[in-house]
Amino acid sequence: MLARAQLADLAPCEAWTSQGTNRQIAYSTHGIYRYFGKFPPPLAAHLISRFTEESEWILDPMVGSGTTAVEALLANRHVVARDVSPLSILLTCVKTRALFAPDVLASFERVRSSFDKGPRETLPRPVGLRNPEHWFLPSTIGSLGRIRAAIDQETEGDCKNLLLAAFAATVRRVSRATTQQGRLFLDAATALPNAWPTFSERFASSLEAVRALPVNKKTHVLVQMHNALEFPPPDSPALPKLIIAHPPYFNNYKYSSINSLELAWMGFDHKHVRKQEIRESFKIGKPEHVEQYVHDMTVTLENLTSELANEGILSLMIGDTVLRGHYVPTINMILGNISHLPLRLELVALRVPRYTEASWVASQRRKGDTVGISLNDFVLVFRKTTSTCSQHK
User: What average pLDDT is seen over the chain?
Assistant: First the structure.
């Protein structure tokens, strides 16, 4: 894999794997929401412990489900967590904030009381779904609408956010979509007519997780809605010592599409989120579109480098693609485009997936006459230098 990706001779190479089953790596608040393609918590923990000290700043520009932010909090590091998805912002806020249980339980009881009163004249409906009945039973739509309407009556921010996170974690589980892989496929046998029992269970497990979070007023978690393709916001804190970036891979699926059902029930059209994402050509399967992807990744890495402290570390987890038997060396193309940046490639790690990661990777390998994908995952570790040019071979 390293030789085919043209990475073997660029820097010292290592092989990394995340130990633990799905249940084992769902410690702390990591299990609040099943986020397909999430950054492995053990990998985030390893990068944080290896390249930072306590009280230093970390930046995750594509925070996803909040993995890096949680690990930074657990390791007593400050962290800036950004994303273009309102779902990611919600999850990160919830997963990094300890709550006082009685207040949240009181909010939950009000939601339960409102739900038990029965349907109303008008209920919230999913936004941006062309045919909601394709993905949900009519009775499921009604129960989800009643839960969402009840949550909307709550005013306390942190409590409401936890309820919304539990609600988001319920949507896919009660839908007619499969829960076994990220891409949306029908699996009508798993649909549940009443969403309340699942919502109640997800709320209880989420509350238990956030109650156990450490309360450290000296550790800062700053969550920002921001597009990595845009220049860093002016209100950013101190320059980060470590940046952990996990962008989509070329021809891999879009995260807005994976979470389109949840975004719809939160009141967001996933198509609007998609317009802000890196152009990765999913489903199109045209190798020539890699130039758009490389351009977007180049702009993103330029922006991130401008924020990184001198001698700081930029960690990039990324993969190449095979389309119709043709290997597309996206990583090597990106490296060629960022040769002007003051980044020195210090380490290339081959990521060896196991357990949950292996099943996710397997689910993304599509092979056929028209489109095929094969994922080779690498972690590239760069150090920002004070020179005016990088040291890529």
Answer: 89
Q: Which two tokens stand for residue 366?
A: 């599509």
Which residue, chain included where needed, has tokens 């570790």? 381
Rounded Cα distance between 176 and 157, Å, is: 31
pTM, rounded to two decimals:
0.92
Closest CA to 143 of 195, 74, 102: 195
Domains of the chain, CATH where assigned: 13-97+215-384 (3.40.50.150), 101-211 (no CATH)
Residue of 72, 74, 65, 80 whose CA lies nearest to 28? 74
Would you say 215 and 98 are in contact if contact means Cβ atoms under 8 Å apart? yes
152 Cβ contact partners less than 8 Å away, ≥ 6 residues apart: 124
Would you place residue 118 in the very low, low, confident or very high pLDDT band (cuts 50, 70, 90)? confident
